[in-house]
Amino acid sequence: MSEAPSGGRRGMSRKSFLQGTAGAGAAGLVIGGGIGYGVGNSSGSSSSGSSGGGGGKKKGTLKIGSASPITGPYAGDGQQMIRGQELAIDELNEGGGVAGYQLELVKLDSKDQSPDVMKTVLQNLVSQNVAAVFMPFCSYTSVEFPIVAAKKVPTFHVNTWHGNVDWVAQHNATNIFEGDPSELSYGAGIVSVLGSLMDAKTWTPRNKTTYIVSSNDPYSLNIAKSYQSSITKLGWKVVGFDQFTVPQANWGGVLVKIRDANPDVIVFSDYAAGDEAAFIKQFAQNPTQSIVYQQYAPSIPQYLQLAGSAANGVIWSTVVGILQNDPIADPFNEKFTSKYGASAGFSNAGDQYDLMKIWAQAAGFAGDPYNFDKINAYIKATPYRGVCGAYSFNHTGLTCIPYPDDTPDPSIGMPHLTFQIQNGKQVAISPEPYTTGKFQLPPWLQ
Predict the structure, then answer these.
(1) Which CATH superfamily, name and number, covers 25-182+323-413?
(2) Do 25-182+323-413 and 184-318+416-445 fold alike per CATH?
(3) Of all residues in the chain, what percent carry a pLDDT higher than 70?
(4) Are the beta carbons of 155 and 132 closer than 8 angstroms?
(5) What is the pTM of this model?
(6) Residue-wise pLDDT tens digits, 209-255
(7) Does residue 431 have a cis bond before it (omega within 30 degrees)?
(8) Is domain 184-318+416-445 classified as CATH 2.110.10.10?
């Protein structure tokens, strides 16, 4: 992964950057979230207006498909996904709907995203003539993709698995959009964060050793192996590499080996909140002198509920996350908390909200929610600034690109966010200009 040049951005303040993005609609970047979302109208403006010409004659109800994990190991994440979708639909309906239609969310359980389940769910949704499909997690085989590709139904996922991106590129699909970068950024991103801590002298490794724990699914293994490759090139030694099958609650055997190795860094690659929370609670009973990185799962509220104070000091990252102290994300957070009585997590509530708004904007622009060719072309061509940062799909495989990993431009790249849990709070420590605090040595290293 090439490093982004810093150029003149080094002196850009968070305030000036956010002020710039808030006014970017005039330059072609459509603004979303709480500030408003454009759909194209007779005045030619793309940064203001209703969601889809809802002021016209009412046309009835439009079904929108949600294939989200309602049960199973990812149900905590699934709840966040559905709530983000629901909140967006509530706002759209209150604003008059989309192209004269009120929206109805059809929710089907994708469970563990096995190929058979995903095929059945997608066939069900397509048979109901849905105008769009939101399947945040999908299978690793892409076996369900032909179902929506054949109909060109606008379809959105955040599966973060590069194999899905490859399928879209190889089959020249025009309607399957990945609302985040693929997992390829994670491994090198971990190494980059560790390097920044060493450069700032806020942490110094004792002997440059690391231990890797990964679930055995392709996504997690890709991240783990990418990290392994990147860190060993810098002269580090991998002193352990363990794999497991989700879900996993008992970490006694793995922790015996970790405590014997006492590595500088433990990297835990998984995305199930229960697995990662159980690990850090058991680690905290007798911690090693190690930085602990846990990938993605701490973004889910369930993680902190389960891990409690044992999570303080953990660092984690996500290639799609809700921004903090942000003029677009903050109104979303307020509405979410008001509706559900609890704050949103840090990833999938926000990306589903954004993706629903992206679709609505395109359908409103088309004027007909079943003009799939026009809607898909608009989505591909039009960058969008939402609660999770910038979405731009005009890339191979219709996926977003990460900032700063693959682009130095935060107006078109989605921020690859790294957080540290400090006193039960999530503090963004990378990248600028999205940071809200600085790294602190974990309690067990002080």
Answers:
(1) Response regulator (3.40.50.2300)
(2) yes
(3) 87
(4) yes
(5) 0.82
(6) 999 999 998 889 999 999 999 999 999 999 999 999 988 889 999 99
(7) yes
(8) no
